From TrEMBL:
Residues 17-88 form the Transcription regulator PadR N-terminal domain. Signal peptide: none annotated. This is PadR family transcriptional regulator. SUPFAM superfamilies: Winged helix' DNA-binding domain (SSF46785). It comes from Devosia limi DSM 17137. InterPro entries: Metal_resp_DNA-bind_regulator, Tscrpt_reg_PadR_N, WH-like_DNA-bd_sf, WH_DNA-bd_sf.
Amino acid sequence: MATSQSSFLNGVPELLVLRLLRDREMYGYEIVQAIREASDEAIGFAEGVIYPLLHSLERDGALTTRRQTVNGRSRVYYRVTPVGAGRLAVLAEQWHDLHRTIAGILAEPRHA
């Protein structure tokens, strides 16, 4: 496994969005809030990060949408497709691999 820091960090919003949407459909701002709440405010992505990601995932077939009017406002709700579930599985495995690698380095330093 070879993961650069920038590619890993770029994948975090996608991983979290797909994971949250795996359980239930949500609209964009709700996703932003859910990430903050689930991380006890440690992780916060601006709407300017989340909305382009949602649109990209929808274009790629990882998400599907439905529009609903709530209190006079139109909201777009997103949910994971089978393609998105597969993508989530790959991203989660990459995360777990990276976590194991870092944990191993932190646990016992290697000497040349």
